Amino acid sequence: MLVLTRKSDEGITLQLDGQVIHLTIIEVQGSKPDNKQVRIGIDAPPACRISRDELLWAEAANRAAAASELPEYILPEVAHKVTLARTADLP
């Protein structure tokens, strides 16, 4: 993981496969280290999916729950492969 320090109104540009994603630190709020919030602006192509981590993990949990609802006649090793396939596209 690359860790960078930025101040308000400073940014970071990511380039991937000819696509450009620009992140800008809009504002840092809070004075205590354990109570700070950072507002980030994201300028990305429309096809780029942007999600908060907690939403991605909730989707993964929902997929895992759906995979566990497979019919009982499916062999356990097949059910495991289905579960892996359904969650393979998540971080």
Characterize the largest beta sheet: strand count, sense, and whether it forms a barrel.
Answer: 3 strands, antiparallel
Tally the helices: 2
Low-confidence stretches: none
- Taking the alpha carbons of the first and last residues, their distance comes to 14 Å
Into which percentage range does the β-strand content fall?
25-35%
How many runs of DSSP E, i.e. beta strands? 3
Domain count: the total is: 2
- Strands across the major sheet, in which order? 1-2-3
CA radius of gyration is 19 Å
**Overall body shape:** flat
* Helix share bin: 25-40%
Mean pLDDT: 80
- In N-to-C order, the SSE pattern is EEEHH
Q: Which structural class do the helices and strands define?
A: alpha+beta
Explain this structure to me?
This protein is α+β, with helices and mostly antiparallel strands. The protein folds into two domains: 1-48, no CATH class; 53-87. 30% of the residues lie in helices and 26% in strands. It has two helices and three strands, in the order βββαα. The chain has helices at 53-67, 76-87; strands spanning 11-16, 19-29, 37-43. A three-stranded antiparallel β-sheet has the order 1-2-3, with no helix packed on it. The longest helix is centred in the middle third of the chain and has 15 residues, at 53-67. The chain is flat and about 45 Å long. The two termini are 14 Å apart. The model has no long low-confidence stretch (mean pLDDT 80).
